[in-house]
Amino acid sequence: MVADISTGLIAIGSGLAIGLSAIAAAMAESTIGAAAVGAMAEKEELFGKGLLLTVIPETLVIFGLVIAILILNLAKVS
Fold it and tell me: Among candidates 64, 51, 76, which has minimal Cα distance to 25?
């Protein structure tokens, strides 16, 4: 089975969609996590808010995964 250049470019595009969104979420989560731990060190009742704010950047990875799946599905149709 011989694959042409468009198959490789589609794979690179979907890989970049999820890879870059994962890197961006990790950068955001590290900053938010450090601030949340600092806030929880002063007030223990902020644990729930800190946990919620730490989870929010993970939606970026979910969006990246959805875009990667859409790219792959659109490639099958074409």
Answer: 64
Q: Is the pTM of this model over 0.85?
A: no
What tokens were used for 27?
């950068």
Q: Which of 45, 29, 47 is nearest to 37 (CA)?
A: 47
Cβ contact 58:25 at 8 Å: yes
> End-to-end distance of the chain based on CA atoms, in angstroms?
18
pLDDT score for 74: 87
Residues in the chain with pLDDT < 50? none
Q: How many CB atoms lie within 10 A of CB 55?
A: 11
Question: Which ranges in 1-78 belong to alpha helices (H)?
Answer: 5-42, 47-55, 58-77
CB 17 within 8 A of CB 75: no
Q: 72 Cβ partners below 8 Å, 6+ apart?
A: 10, 14
